[in-house]
Amino acid sequence: MDSMSKIKNTSRKLRFCCLGIMIATPIVIALAWINLNHYPALIRELPIKPMAELPATALLLGFGIDMISASIIMYAVYKLYKLFGLYGEGRIFNNQVVNCYRMLGRVIIIAVPLGILEETLMVLMITFFTYPPGQRLLSIGLSNDSFMLLFIGVSLLTASWVMDEARKLKEDQELII
């Protein structure tokens, strides 16, 4: 099996995995929120510990808040799905591939402020529903993960730029007789 056949075969498999991730993500998040009050391990994953059991309204809001970052993740996985589709067709150096990498970089960069917003909203929601007035909290913060995501996003944008230049060189070489 030549290398292009291996790329096509692996890309088809990864594309199938991406489809599974896009379908499973909202389902897993919904199940986690439905069962949150019954599993201490899930409660420990929250940015702040609730002082009481979360009511159904809070669980629904929590699901909606969690879907902020999940939608970004699903969009990034969708871009990977498209990228692996292009690779599966044998398209390596073309404008669509470059655009997939460029959008992945942008999406990862956008995920940082949205992650901060999500955590802030989650803390506000939990304290609103389970903390008494006067003890509610507001939390805004950056983590090392935020800086790492920014670095990865900028790196992907740079890689897309380099790939675009390589694509242009390839097109120029194809024009030379």
Structural account:
The protein is mainly alpha-helical. The chain has one domain. Helices cover 78% and strands 0% of the residues. The protein is built from five helices and no strands. The chain has helices at residues 3-34, 40-44, 56-88, 95-130, 144-175. Helix 1 (3-34) packs antiparallel against helix 3 (56-88) and helix 3 packs antiparallel against helix 4 (95-130). It is elongated. The two termini are 30 Å apart. 15% of the residues are buried.
In short:
With 177 residues, the chain is mainly alpha-helical. 78% of the residues lie in helices and 0% in strands.
Task: Please describe the structure with a list of short key phrases separated by commas or semicolons.
5 helices; 177 residues; mainly alpha; single chain
Shape: elongated
Integer count of domains: 1
In helices, the fraction of residues equals over 70%
DSSP, total strands? 0
Number of helices: 5
Low-confidence stretches: none
Mean pLDDT: 91
Largest sheet at a glance?
none
Secondary-structure element string: HHHHH
Fold topology:
Blueprint: H1 3-34, H2 40-44, H3 56-88, H4 95-130, H5 144-175
